Amino acid sequence: MSARDEVLARVRRARGAGGAVAVPREYRAAGTRGPGDLALFAERLRDYRARVRVVAAGEVAEAIAAALRDRDARLVVPAPGAPPAWTAGWPRPDAPVDRPTLERADAVVTACHVAVAETGTIVLDHDAADQGPRALTLIPDYHLVVVRADQVVAGVPDAVAALAGVRTQTWISGPSATSDIELERVEGVHGPRTLEVVVAT
Q1: Which DSSP helix (H) or strand (E) runs through 68?
Q2: Residues contacting residue 119 through CB under 8 Å, at least 6 positions apart
Q3: Which pLDDT score is estimated for 27?
Q4: 44-66, pLDDT tens digit by residue?
Q5: What is the pTM of this model?
Q6: 8 Å CB contact between 106 and 73
């Protein structure tokens, strides 16, 4: 008898003849908690130092324009499939956008795939045209993302369910940030220092 067999035999003897033990599985499941709470989502985003504008669906383009003006943005790169109306006041660079253009960009504008109210997290699908390739949202220092109310789910299980089949994802909770050995927060090391979210109700 090998050591492994001996160990397993001891486990079986210790368990006795009771058979399999039922394991309670009372996990949070997708779809059990209703829609995402928009107020909670906005609060969580602000906790992460993201800028948040909650507007009516018909006011998204106006809110984007106001945000870009406040930022004094001149070179704005929207995701290739983003609605043209979102950045109608800014010239669109030729697609595909190369790295030098992204390094000079003052802002990028994208949609998202799903967002989580409980954690203030936004998930991008980089195979979707309105969210663009990963470099688009990592290189520029300012990322403006539009989230529709129906994309906000209650919790992480709901987001995971909504992401079935999505291969290339980025989960964002606020601006890019890290801490050094003395726990000093440093923003913008691995991505945009500023995240602005327009929530369309």
Answers
A1: helix 60-71
A2: 44, 155, 156, 173
A3: 82
A4: 999 999 999 999 999 999 999 99
A5: 0.84
A6: yes
